[in-house]
Design goal:
Two copies of one chain form a homodimer. Chain A is of the alpha/beta class. In chain A, strands 3, 4, 5, 6, 7, 14 and 15 form a seven-stranded mixed β-sheet that branches. Chain A has a six-stranded parallel β-sheet with strand order 10-9-8-11-12-13, sandwiched between helices. The mean pLDDT of chain A is 94. In chain A, strand 11 (215-219), helix 6 (224-230) and strand 12 (234-242) form a beta-alpha-beta unit. Chain A has two domains: 2-124 and 306-336, Quinone Oxidoreductase, Chain A, domain 1, CATH 3.90.180.10; 128-281, Rossmann fold (3-Layer(aba) Sandwich). Chain A contains nine helices and 15 strands. In chain A, 50% of the residues are buried. The A-B interface holds A 52, 58-60, 223, 227, 236, 242-245, 248, 251, 253-279, 282 and B 52, 58-60, 223, 227, 236, 242-245, 248, 251, 253-279, 282.
Chain lengths: 338, 338
């Protein structure tokens, strides 16, 4: 018998999650049955969408039940296999959640090639965040050479891929991030055409200066104050793929401030905007193979760079996740579990 | 010399327009020059978009200057022509605005065939409102057989065409209108699958009952309370063509009520909605000929019906326009000028 250390949802957060919303438990796992494997988690991905799963509100996926293991994408090693096509020692992309071990169906687990790219990239630039950037930008953003794009959380795994793919498509890429270190990284390492600190008291003015021809694509992954500065600068026929709203995740539904909806809605009308929510799964069948080919190529050519922020030990996951919601990470946030 | 009676914008409204925002004047017109025509207005169209033009705020078109003639689509008779292809007695679709006569360029004026359809329809079902319905529904709404559509102001020229075209496309059409007379008209005359009175205190519940499979297309031309009841019922991948927001036109930008933007924006994300503003001019080159052919055919076959609400005399225009913003008209609102 193998014991899995698990972090479960102890209670639903009201507003900002705290350590008290999580609890560590240990569970004895049964041996894998027919078609199953026993996995040992190597890396756990921490992502903003997990905040949504902690709430009971209906979203695009079912909430995590109180007392259940927190969900999450993982890279794992196969310790035992009774599934066809999987062998002891294989490294696979899995969805084991916040735990050290899992017994699960072998079907649907993708085997990773450690010689092609570090296996951790299957949770970042070559995984869900990278594909969110690729599919949302190409299918909804529809970039055209010479246009201007703005993306926030631009040093994160989605934003950094969005900006770099935009530049490959001939689009001027303007990144927004928090603090001088991240801003310098966007400009100097990733080659963004401009980078702006959203903590700058003159943020809105800086943004305006950075987009002399207005904004044609706003890749929305934050909402809040950045969105408020961006919308007045959107050009006629601008496209806004919406894949996340991290700034609003901890906010109730009717905060005590002026109703900004009429002005927002009116701008959609008067500028002929396209605002389109999406989850990357919508495009998987159609585009995932192209994505792996394109993205691996761009990484090999040095045209797409990525950065990981790795935390050691599953017990660090709650603290690291709370930091993610405040933008304290720098790059794709991973927990090295095994 | 011919004198034109004109209604000019006397001042910009704050909130709801009043009679004091308009002034009647008389202007002596010069004789038509080379390439020009002298027109006598037969019908003036009154439309919600005119509220936007009365404000100084930037929109998709320039505001009417204070002291200038109110803009508007018209059907006019040619009294004198120095323009090629136009003769005295021709009836044309023009953009003379709120006045009895105009000297203008002949180029671009469309000659109407009074034998094909009553000339007034060039301002309604066979004109801008009809084309707004046709292009927005087909290009942005992308109706699929068996889906459900909701449209408000459904007895108006845009809404009534939207619902009837939707039914031709095999879509369940639910119309929202104000008062029992309009609701009965939608159900009994136009053949909507369901019709609901937005003045019903249980409006939201009635709407929910009318869309057991949720809503796939919400053709947005009102905003406000109807939009608020519709959005929670939108299905994943629903489309929202936005062509007008009459309920919000008289509202300031930050009314003193809870901020509804985060909840609205979050719904776009979690339901993968497409919210797309548009002005019919975007689709004219691509679709206008098809529209005239299809719509004339549907009218001849009795599959699309229309209703006009005709007011007599240019001097009635301000009062009729104010009534339009309150939904007091019943059908396409026209002023018979000549």
């Amino acid at each position: 018998m193998v014991a899995s250390t698990q972090i479960v949802l102890a209670s639903r957060p009201e507003g900002v999650p705290t350590a008290a919303n999580f609890r560590t438990e240990s569970a004895e796992l049964p041996p894998p049955g027919d078609g199953q494997v026993l996995l040992r988690t190597l890396y756990l991905s921490l992502d903003p969408y997990m905040r949504g799963r902690m709430s009971a509100a209906k979203s695009y996926a079912a909430p995590v039940e109180v007392g259940a293991v927190m969900v999450g994408g993982t890279v794992s090693e196969v310790l035992e296999s009774r599934a066809p096509g999987l062998s002891k020692g294989d490294v696979v992309q899995s969805h084991s959640g916040w735990q050290t071990h899992q017994v699960t169906r072998g079907k649907g687990l993708r085997v990773l090639d450690p010689d092609r790219a570090p296996v951790s990239t299957a949770l970042g630039v070559l995984g869900m965040p990278g594909f969110t950037a690729y599919s949302g930008l190409l299918r909804i953003g529809r970039p055209a050479r010479g246009e201007t794009l703005v993306v926030a959380a631009a040093s994160g795994p989605v934003g950094s891929a969005v900006g770099q793919i935009a530049r490959i498509e001939g689009v001027r890429a303007v990144g927004v991030a928090g603090g001088p270190k991240k801003v310098a990284y966007l400009r100097d390492e990733l080659g963004f055409d401009a980078a702006i600190d959203h903590r700058d008291p003159d943020f809105a003015a800086r943004l305006r200066e950075a987009v002399p021809d207005g904004i044609d694509i706003y890749f929305e992954n934050v909402g809040g104050a950045v969105a408020e500065a961006v919308y007045p600068l959107l050009n006629t026929y601008a496209r806004v793929p919406v894949c996340g709203l991290i700034a609003d995740y901890n906010t109730g539904n009717a905060p005590e401030e002026p109703n900004r909806l009429p002005a927002f809605y009116s701008r959609i009308l008067t500028r002929s905007l396209t605002v389109r929510g999406f989850i990357q799964t919508e495009f998987v069948d159609e585009m995932y193979d192209d994505f792996l080919t394109d993205m691996s190529g761009w990484i090999a050519e040095g045209r797409v760079k990525y950065r990981e922020d790795v935390v050691d030990g599953l017990e660090q996951a709650p603290e690291a996740f709370m930091g993610l919601l405040e933008g304290r990470n720098f790059g794709k946030l991973l927990v090295r579990v095994g």
